[in-house]
Design brief:
- The protein is mainly alpha-helical.
- About 80% of the residues lie in helices and about 0% in strands.
- It contains eight helices and no strands.
- The chain starts with a helix and ends in a 6-residue tail after the last helix.
Length: about 260
């Protein structure tokens, strides 16, 4: 058992350290190529440290036998998201080159469809990998919504904040934590968020078209979350009603068994 713990500790140090190192290297490349400012550097380094810390803790808790090829793809995608985050933070002082911004974001979005396929083909799908992939997706959408909001207004932040609002609500309403059935529509809407936000952030559309594209993204997301919330609520009520009927039947049976016989 001790040998397994030593292996896991070494695994965590190697995999997460490489990820943090590549993130710093990407920031250095961006700094030399486009002159990344202090805000971009600080944000990028903070992202690298946070990713390293959270991922290390998750690996220590789950203790996987190996990090896995799919998680390496997701870690590479997280590195690109860190670069996009640094560019967005720097954009408040100077706009980043469109080609660099769009290029990093586009590759990160394309790789979103790769890590899942790698996990299935190699038989390395794990709850940790799925959660890691989901968190990287959610943070990229949040960062893109922040960038687009600087042009269209704060209402765009609803797109990036909706998933985090759902998680916060689930802490107060436990029925939101119930597992959802697989849904192609949900996956499609989630994938469209990044594509539509990138299109809006690219600056290649006129203002009215940028507003329309972003509004479509928000409307689709509200529909998707709303449908899931209604399903979860309906399921929770069905379970509660079933439990209530079961308890009522038990009480009725107990009363029947304890009732005194009536004299004939």
């Amino acid at each position: 058992m001790a040998l397994n713990n030593t292996y896991d500790a070494r695994l965590v140090q190697q995999e997460t350290a490489v990820g943090a190192g590549v993130q710093i290297l990407l920031l250095a490349l961006l700094g030399s190529a486009i002159g990344l400012g202090p805000a971009g550097w600080l944000t990028g380094v903070a992202f690298a440290v946070a990713t390293w810390a959270v991922l290390s803790r998750a690996l220590h808790r789950t203790r996987p036998r190996s990090f896995g090829p799919a998680n390496r793809v997701t870690l590479g995608r997280a590195t690109l998201v860190g670069g996009v985050t640094a560019l967005v933070a720097d954009s408040f002082e100077s706009a980043p080159p469109v080609t660099v911004f769009v290029g990093l974001t586009a590759v990160a979005l394309i790789l979103d469809g790769v890590d899942g396929k790698v996990a299935r083909r190699t038989g390395t799908s794990t709850p940790l990998g799925a959660r890691f992939d989901m968190e990287v997706d959610a943070f990229l959408i949040l960062v893109l919504s922040v960038y687009v909001s600087t042009r269209l207004g704060p209402w765009v932040l609803l797109i990036g904040g909706m998933r985090y609002a759902f998680v916060a609500a689930a802490r107060v309403l436990p029925w939101l934590n119930a597992p959802l059935p697989p849904s192609t529509a949900r996956k499609t809407v989630a994938a469209l968020q990044g594509v539509l936000l990138l299109l809006a952030a690219s600056g290649c559309l006129p203002f009215w078209a940028t507003c329309a594209v972003t509004s479509i993204a928000l409307a689709a997301l509200v529909w998707s979350f709303g449908r899931d919330v209604l399903w979860l609520r309906g399921t929770s009520r069905t379970v509660a009603d079933g439990v209530g009927r079961g308890r009522a039947d038990e009480v009725a049976l107990m009363l029947e068994l304890t009732r005194e016989p009536v004299a004939s």
